[in-house]
Amino acid sequence: MVTAQLNPVTAPPSKPSKSDKRRKAVNRGKRRSNLLTLVMWLSVLYFILPLIWLFMSATKDNSDLFTTFGLWFGHDFNLFANIRDVFAYQDGIYARWALNTGIYAGVAALGATTLATMAGYAFAKYKFPGDKLLFAITLGAIMIPLTALAIPTYLLFSSAHLTNTPWAVILPSLVSPFGVFLMRVYAADAVPDSLMQAARVDGAGEYRIFWTVSLRLLAPGMVTVMLFTFVATWNNYFLPLIMLNSGKLLPLTVGLAQQQATSTAGGGAQALFSTVIAGAFLSIIPLVIVFLYLQRFWQTGLATGGVKG
To answer: Which of 166, 58, 171 is nearest to 102 (CA)?
Structure first.
């Protein structure tokens, strides 16, 4: 009688079940989420801490400004006293600087938006000789830093006797190559060709199609360009610095810088530090209001420009 010797059978390694795979994916997703959350919080702190420091510093007098912790209040709350000093300095020159800044930024934003919309719409919807070359030149102009054009622009405006006038700040700000690019990308899909053909069949000319049909569809992109140009002109420092000499024509950026220079000259004898910081805090409030009011259009325009091309 032969007895069969049975070898122990080793079980093959079991394959991970679907639940195990799902559990691993969830755990991996949690690790990624925690990392992204940490990066997000660091980014928020990076951007929000300067604003907190600016607000806290605007509430302090000169002595507390240098002797207390930067991210907390001082011994006394002097925000309203500092604001009163801001508007009392040199017979209220700060209000004049704020008015100049609003005029420069507002006119430049409206003008640049109009020109960028018309140019981008033409590049997107019409074929004409040299259109690709002109658009390539526009794209190349985006890469040129504005500081590189400051001296040539000054010489050009000086020969035209336009320096030390508001036009020396407004006219260069009307040129926005990035706005043209953004509106070209946006108009390519926001305005259907079939809609333009239907308008032509109904007897509408190209001028009427643009102003009565296409312009409403381009509104989100226009608001985006307007917001970009408004913020860029509001924060512009170098161009007004070289173009303007009169103190009554200065924007807030250059005016506050001159106040800061006055404070540091002579060891801070005039003690304008708290006044300068309170003025800087007031200067960002209009930008925050404009951004909060227009951010829904801005988000729509950026999302459209990011997925279409």
So the answer is: 166
What CA–CA distance (Å, rounded) separates 101 from 286?
A: 11
d(CA 56, CA 36): 29
pLDDT digits (tens, 9 = 90+) for 180-209: 999 999 999 899 999 999 999 999 999 999
pLDDT tens per residue across span 73-88: 989 999 999 999 999 9
Which positions of the chain have pLDDT values less than 50?
1-9, 308-309
Separation of alpha carbons 110 and 106, rounded Å:
6
Q: CA 92 → CA 88, 96, 229, 277, 305, distances in Å?
A: 5, 7, 27, 16, 43
Residue 46: how many CB atoms within 10 A of its CB?
Answer: 9
The Cα diameter of the chain in Å comes to 122
| Spatial distance between the Cα atoms of 92 and 255, rounded to a whole number of angstroms | 12
Q: How far apart are CA 171 and CA 236, in angstroms?
A: 13
DSSP letter at 4 equals P
Residue that the structure tokens 């951007």 belong to: 47
CA distances 16 to 11, 19, 26, 118, 252, Å, are 14, 8, 15, 60, 65
Residues 51, 48: Cα–Cα separation, whole Å = 5
d(CA 254, CA 262): 12
Task: Provide the CA 141 distance to its chain's centre, in angstroms.
Answer: 18
Amino acid at 192: P
- Full-model pTM: 0.82
Nearest Cα residue to 275 out of 298, 292, 259:
259
Query: Between the CA atoms of 208, 209, 210 and 215, what dihedral angle is there, to the nearest 10 degrees?
Result: 110
Asked whether the beta carbons of 243 and 154 are under 8 A apart, the reply is yes
- The closest of 279, 235, 233 to 259, measured between CA atoms, is 279
